[in-house]
Amino acid sequence: MLLYGDAVAHINIARRVVDNRHPLQSFDQLGTVWLPLQHIAMLPLVWNDALWRSGAAGAVPGMLAYVLGALGIFRLVSGRAPKIVAYIAAGIYALNPNVLYMQTTAMNEPIFLAFFIWALAYLDEFLRGCFPNSDSQIMPARMMPNRALEACGIVLAGGAFTRYDGWLVATVVGVIVVSAFAVWWRRTIDIRHRRAMAKSLIEFLLLNALVPAFYLIYTYCVSGYALDFANGPYSVKAIALRSATRGAPPYPGQNHLLTAALYFLKSAKLNMGPAFWGQALFVVALAGTALAIWRFRRYAVFLLLWLPLPFYALSIAYGSVPIYVPVWYPYSYYNVRYGLELLPMFAVFIALLTVLILERTGGSSVKIVVCCVWILVVAGGYLSAYRETPITLREAQVNSRGRVPMERALANYLAELPHPASLLMYLAEHAGVPQQAGIPLRHVISEATHPDWEWALLDPAGHADYIVACQSDPVWTAVRQHRAELTEMLSISAPGQSRCTIYRRR
């Protein structure tokens, strides 16, 4: 559950809200880089020490989102295709080995996918309610169009509070909604319906405009800089600058949109299946996309499932967000999990091809047999993936090889120290140490505790009983200037990790 460093960070951000040195500043602990909804969803669970230390507090929201995502796929597809197609799409989504792994962690990809899928499902409800169609394949809307619009706005806001992908999705869907509303308004003369729809549209637009506005204001209040999440010291851009080797070539796709898109698509294929199977399923998904374009009036909404592609292509090219895949240069694992954002696209468009099969076969028994064969063909990719370790799990294992032993060794030693004792430590690199050691965060002075952090760096021995300094971090620099006041207790090294030393004050 806690192999991903980001999963450890997510769960500890939530824990800081309920366990910190300054309770009156609790919600400042949500930070400014990651959007807050996932962390807020953990609050009912993360206060429990067992759920916090095991990582289960972070897994529960992901598991619920996984179930809702599968239901959302069924709801979306069943509105415009036979139910058997919707069942196939939901099965492709739910049985993907990578989403099955990710939903057991504190990562936010499954949560965003659920919001994304349901936003499109409610958008489709709104469109089917506004523009009834005589096509027998298209089901009548289950909700009043104004209620569907309100639900769509709420779900979009949830996605925009979970991942920055949601900001693009909300913008595109907002443009579509306003355009559809304008067409509907010209066709409708009922004053009561007009008034109800106008009210819902205003609520939809205000809600989705307030999400980024609120977050910019919140970020400014916490850090003094509204764009701290984009350009601050803990932003993706700053991390990329710190980790880049001087004189090293740019990462693949940097300042090159086409290469960036190819790397994202490759990660998406690897999340569907290894080598041949991932490519084969991608070709099938492209065929389903071609069908949706051919029958645009029926399946146009499904094409929005491709929105992650432009978002991540732009992020890789111009946002300092590299993706490394093991089969292409530099033959490593980094952010491969981002390809999972295209899983709904694969699920829907692979299943959509069964519409042609159903239209060209005879009796119901033949249809069932053909669909079962189709499911087995699709399952071949997943079976090959299950024979190997899912690529998201491999990514987590590879990138945690040095960090996990280092954190375990530090935590085992710190757990034996007398408590309560104050601890000074930079947690941006090793947030899992207090978590594994069972040390309450209210006893830890870190970069998230202001102004204690600044004072402690000026005088480590005067503010903490024990100090953990890792080479090149801010605590290491502070300790070098006050070495005479400290006694070294233990020094630990691990492959690929900076050496960490535990001190106590004299």
Question: In a nutshell, what does this entry contain?
Answer:
This protein has 506 residues and is mainly alpha-helical.
* Average residue pLDDT: 91
User: How would you sum up the major sheet?
Assistant: 5 strands, mixed
Tally of separate domains: 2
Helicity level, as a percent range?
A: 55-70%
Q: What is the strand arrangement across the widest sheet?
A: 2-1-3-5-4
Extract low-pLDDT stretches.
Answer: none
What share of residues are in beta strands? under 5%
- How large, in whole angstroms, is the Cα Rg? 25 Å
Total strand count, please? 5
Explained architecture:
With 506 residues, the protein is mainly alpha-helical. The chain folds into two domains: 8-397, no CATH class; 401-505, D-Maltodextrin-Binding Protein, domain 2. It is built from 24 helices and five strands. It has helices at residues 5-18, 37-46, 49-54, 56-78, 83-94, 97-102, 109-130, 145-160, 165-187, 191-223, 228-231, 236-243, 257-272, 275-294, 296-299, 308-318, 343-359, 364-387, 391-399, 403-415, 432-437, 452-458, 460-463, 474-481, and strands at 423-425, 444-445, 466-470, 486-492, 500-505. Strands 2-1-3-5-4 form a five-stranded mixed beta sheet. A hairpin with a 7-residue loop joins strand 4 (486-492) and strand 5 (500-505). It starts with a helix and ends with a strand.
